Amino acid sequence: MSTGLTDGVGIRYTQWREGDSKMGNRFRTMMAAGVAASVMAIGLSVAVTPVEAQDYRYRAPRTADGKPDLNGIWQALGSANSDIEPHAARFGPVVEMAALGAIPGGLGVVEGGEIPYLPEARAKQQENLKFWLERDPAVKCYMPGVPRATYMPYPFQIVQTPEYALLAYEFASASRIVYMDRPDFEAPVDSWMGHNIGRWEGETLVIDVTANMADTWLDSSGNHHSDQMTVEERYTAMSADHLMYEATITDPETYTRPWKISMPLYRRVETNVQLLEFKCVEFAEELMYGHLRKDPDMSTAYRASGRGSDREVVLTPPQ
């Protein structure tokens, strides 16, 4: 009898524990699903919220005229200068540079991932990419233009006054003057760094860049534009040492619609930081004019062996 009673209680206890376990499993499953849904919702809300719609709670220090103080030396990180669209790592143009000369991959800085080219413009970009070393204007030390000057692997400096903002770049010693109090000032001619008219929208410095030369590229992957391109730049302080940079590019001769790039810029904070000279003309002379040499053995093809350079003695590495 006692055995039967014990068995009965044991059976009921076992059934109760099984039911409790199932309820616990369902509860834990529901909790896990809820947490996962919440994380996904938060992630999606962050991912799809455009930069301009985010709430910038940081308020920059003020200049003497009460405007956000963006003065300083800034630099972009990443591989946008190589390719502003998503790209894998690839071989560089100089065999002797090997891994050090390879082009790193990047997630891209174009919103949506792809530039909305017209079909014939995309075909031209692909041809440019194939011959980029011969065609990239920056290889020849031409001024890089806007927006490319911002994300080249060189720092640049912002200097503010009530009437002007000066943006000075280390690469090629390029610079541009932004007119802050002349909204109706029209460009006299097209120029490599464009015609720059600035204004303030709250915490954001907005620069409208027009009269751009068609010769500049957006990167080293052949991404190009026409002389009808206009750029609206936006610089917003995110902290004492970070700016958010956005550029909306419009060019109906090249793209199907306006499109945008965005990236953070970082303040250079090392001691005694300053722009150094990178007057690259002398580095490009052999490439551009080497074929004019009297010596027929010298060519425009530079190699570390000395061919195409101005070395009098070809160096032989030790064995």
The average pLDDT score comes to: 83
Roughly what percent helix? 10-25%
- Biggest β-sheet strands, sense, barrel: 9 strands, mixed, barrel
Structural class: alpha+beta
Described by the principal axes of the CA atoms, the overall outline is globular
Euclidean distance between termini CA atoms? 96 Å
How many domains, as an integer? 2
Percent range for β-strand residues = 15-25%
Rg over alpha carbons: 29 Å
Brief characterization of the structure:
With 319 residues, the protein is an alpha+beta fold. Helix content is 24%, strand content 19%.
Task: Report on the architecture of this protein.
The protein contains five helices and nine strands; from the N terminus they run αβαααββββββββα. The termini are far apart. The chain has two domains: 196 residues, no CATH class; 35 residues, no CATH class. Helices cover 24% and strands 19% of the residues. It has a nine-stranded mixed barrel with strand order 1-2-3-4-5-6-7-8-9. The protein has 319 residues and is α+β, with helices and mostly antiparallel strands.
Q: Which SSEs are present, and which pair or pack?
A:
Layout: H1 2-48, E1 72-75, H2 119-130, H3 132-135, H4 148-151, E2 156-160, E3 164-169, E4 175-179, E5 195-201, E6 204-210, E7 230-239, E8 242-250, E9 259-267, H5 281-289
Parallel strand pairs: 4-5
Antiparallel strand pairs: 1-2, 1-9, 2-3, 3-4, 5-6, 6-7, 7-8, 8-9
